[in-house]
Amino acid sequence: MLISVYIPFLVTAALAVLAPPVAHRLPPRPAALALACAALVTAAGWAGSLALLAFTGVAQIPEIAEEGRWSVSALRSQDPVYAVVAAVSTLVLAVCVVSLGVAAVRQGRHLLRARRECAGLPGQTELAVLDDDVPLAFALPGSPGRIVVSRGMLRRLDGAEREALLAHERAHLRGRHHVFQSVWRLTAALNPLLRPVAVAGNFVLERWADEEAAERVGDRTVVAHAVGRAALASAGAARPAALAATGGVVPQRVRALLAPPPARRSLPLLVGGLLLAVCCASLANAASDSDRMLDSAHWALCSAQATTTAAAAPTGHDDAPGHRPDGCCAVPDRPDHPERHV
Prior knowledge:
Elements: H1 7-25, H2 28-58, H3 62-68, H4 72-78, H5 83-120, E1 127-130, E2 137-140, E3 146-150, H6 151-155, H7 159-174, H8 177-190, H9 195-217, H10 220-233, E4 243-244, H11 250-258, H12 267-312
Parallel strand pairs: 1-3
Antiparallel strand pairs: 2-3, 2-4
Helix pairs in contact: 1-2, 1-9, 1-12, 2-5, 2-8, 2-9, 2-12, 4-12, 5-8, 7-9, 7-10, 8-9, 9-10, 10-11
């Protein structure tokens, strides 16, 4: 446990540094899936390691040890974690759990508000056109989702660019990109080291929609022009908290669209999968070591109680051998001379 419990922290830090630049060079769809998987696994590993470190301190509280029926002295003699480390881990875990709860409430309200807005839009078709001169274009998740475009935005684009814009927003709905956003926001709230992964994930989602729009339109240059002109048109407008074609780092998206499609690379995905496997294996090993440590402390308490009871109990007691009312197991009495009982 001394080493394995800290490995999830190292894996999380490595992915937070390496994942964003690598994800920008991968095809956006597998990059988004990989980032979501990495965020979930490393957030669980982060919380699990903090919980194990915190438990080593909590388990040494006499009242907790009495309820768990293990020896505090035996646990302290085997525990490789310093008390200050356990205390800091407890505090950090509590803060992260509270942060996760707040983020979950906010995300739930955001999705409910988006669904209410989606249900309140005029018309029943997928596209809702707002009679507004402010250039707006975004997708609202719902059942089904809706694409919202203002007349001000449509007037600033030609026919092909309008098709590219709608294809981009339709890709957001079809790919359920709001689910990816929720995963990254919640995991980043639980594990602050994952915030760069969340930022990179939002950019990858826009690239994913750009690539699908380019396939739909059949011209990457048209999509690049549509993204650029839509971003320039809405530069002074307030951006809605929804998936929009003007999101992300627009210059990088335009450069990617003017270049050939990104090549498929399996090596970064394999390396990332290996790191996640190491994270899971190390956490499982640390949990197993912690369980063995508690078992040893439990049997140490049982042995001490059995020795004390054997020394204090009279010769002829009525309790059945091998069973104790306190829940500990004692070794049954074995006579040294069996012939005396004949």
